[in-house]
Amino acid sequence: MKWATGVLFSLSVISIPYLHNLKTVDARTPTVAQNQPTCYCQRLYPPGATIADKFYWVGAEKNLGVTFTGKFNSAQKMAETFNLAKEIGSFKGKKWKLSDILLAVDFGGNGNVATWQVSGPTPLVQKYLNDLKAQYANKSVFYDFSASTIKFTVSAD
User: Which residues, in sequence order, are CB contacts of 147 under 8 Å at separation 6+?
Assistant: First the structure.
């Protein structure tokens, strides 16, 4: 991990260009932030926000959006949690990865803290939520954890 201008910050399989003194971004698009105090580029989706249709399930099972906040036991546990290639479950004959449901992540907290949002088919997102709750209950990944549902709308594009 390097923190110099123009060098990539890497967390698991997420690589984010570090731009010194980046302060603002386009208000329409949430971006993934890094664990760096001088970067103020992250923004999570607000309730009722329009999201890309690839993240919004319109089937009979309905869509479920959830915002999570986790305080991780270690940087390693946080990196493992945000492995985009990690399989989170099967639904309708497809194996789903975290990258299939992950909308936005905020690594801007102090220490090993993150807030992230997911959206997808209710049974799949509910399984993901239950798995995270179990990791909190046995204290294997989180020392503090919370989750709340959030309503999204789908883009007409």
Answer: 66, 67, 68, 69, 129, 132, 133
Distance CA 74, CA 8 (A): 21
Tell me: pLDDT of 132 over 90: yes
On whether the CB atoms of residues 141 and 135 are closer than 8 A, the answer is yes
Do the beta carbons of residue 49 and residue 39 sit within 8 Å? no
> What's the whole-model pTM score?
0.72
81 phi, psi to nearest 5 deg:
-65, -35
Contact partners, residue 54, CB within 8 Å, separation at least 6 = none
Of the chain, the end-to-end C-alpha distance in Å amounts to 38
What pLDDT does 125 receive? 98
